Amino acid sequence: WLLDGAPVKGATQRTFTLEPSHAGKRVSVRVTATRDGYEKGVATSSSASVAKGAAPRATKAPKVSGTARLGTKLKASKGSWDTAGVAVSYQWLRGGKAIKGATSRTYTLKKKDVGKRVSVRVTASKAGYDDGASSSKAVKVKKAKAKVTAKVKMAGKRAKVVVRIKASGYPKPAGTVRVKVGKKTVKAKLKASAKGRVTVRLPRLARGAYRIKVTYTPSAKSKKHVTKASSKRVTLRVR
Length: 239
What we know:
The chain is an all-beta fold and 239 residues long.
């Protein structure tokens, strides 16, 4: 048997098993006929190109795990394949289209993903075989969940509330902060440049204990990416 016209060592049987390393080469066979009293006769077949092996097929599709929310990390499983020894690679998709540079097993969700459906395509490769691919089910990406914290401090005869708004994947939330003190409500604007921090000065209060709750309402721009949220109640004691 010959590969690209060169004899294959040990391949002298009527049959010859092709291997992955033979893909892309041309295979042929040379037959030699002998008979006592006659010279040898030699004939070579026409050659044929050796095609790659059939692409690996997924017996179990890849899956995406993790919470599909802005700022969180998703992780892909590689799935199961009917061909042993495959190497796998990953490509994350947004709306069925490849996300540039998102080729790791994990992917951290970005602002562009909010409201879109994200999935992963796993490609299985092996020398001498065509590549096989399988995609996970897509998951819809939700807004970042805002977390509001409030700390109360006395500043002379008036108190102030230091408010922090944190949202994973969205470091510069903007909007309105409302601080409820008993039956009163004080509003303050939260600018994007403040990076989620604003200090609200409260009016003068009579002696006593007050329960304070802070509510954050995102601006028209921010609400595309972050949710409305409220803090836990904190107690202010005025002496």
